[in-house]
Amino acid sequence: MRYKKDIQRYKEYSKSSALLLVLTQQGLWALFVYRFFNAIYRSTMPKIVKAPLLVIGVFFQKWIEVITGITLPYAATIGEGLYIGHYSGIIISPETVIGKRCNISQGVTIGVSGRGAHRGVPTIGNRVYMAAGAVIAGGINVGDGAVIGANSLVITDVKEGTTVLGVPAKMVSAKDSKDYI
């Protein structure tokens, strides 16, 4: 069901058929492998069955990484309707949480950073737009409807419905992601 929502998001942008999108969009390839093995990872099937399937999943994930440049570990939590605008150079930590209807552009990294109690991975809200080259790192929260500007380094919380930009990222606008998503 979630994969259908992913395809619907792609259709909103391209107006192409689902078949054409599935055959040509590397983001959908990565999402398919992620959704399939995430379902196994979160299932209640016996460990004796689950473990070998997840080992196979790691090989499929690595294959997708090689051909698309997109790292979507099956252990991450990704809401329905994710749109990967351009493939390549996208790295997401396995512990990351991403909300519904988010957009990720090429070169985005969402990962572990920080020291001591501040070490962790980001939690990304719903309808967040992450522009090309953005790095979002550490145990931070990015609020719903936020916009992360291109090549920004986000290492502190981002308020809901704001735009941040820079290194380190600072709020530059109270405009939300409505025009991007």
What is the topology?
Elements: H1 2-14, H2 18-24, H3 26-42, H4 47-68, E1 70-71, E2 77-78, E3 83-84, E4 90-92, E5 97-98, E6 103-104, E7 109-111, E8 123-124, E9 129-130, E10 135-137, E11 141-142, E12 147-148, E13 153-154, E14 163-165, E15 170-173
Parallel strand pairs: 1-4, 2-5, 3-6, 4-7, 5-8, 6-9, 7-10, 8-11, 9-12, 10-13, 12-14
Antiparallel strand pairs: 14-15
Could you list some keywords that capture this structure?
alpha/beta, six-stranded mixed β-sheet, 15 strands
Describe the structure.
- With 181 residues, the chain is α/β, with parallel strands linked by helices.
- The chain is 33% helix and 20% strand.
- It has 4 helices and 15 strands.
- The strands form 3 sheets. A 6-stranded mixed sheet has the order 3-6-9-12-14-15. The protein has a 5-stranded parallel sheet with strand order 1-4-7-10-13. It has a 4-stranded parallel sheet with strand order 2-5-8-11, with no helix packed on it.
- The longest helix is centred in the N-terminal third of the chain and has 22 residues, at 47-68.
- The model has no long low-confidence stretch (mean pLDDT 94).
- Keywords: Acyltransferase, Membrane, Transferase, Transmembrane, Transmembrane helix.
- This is Serine acetyltransferase.
- InterPro entries: LbH_SAT (IPR045304), Ser_O-AcTrfase (IPR005881), Trimer_LpxA-like_sf (IPR011004).
- Its EC number is 2.3.1.30.
- GO terms for molecular function: serine O-acetyltransferase activity.
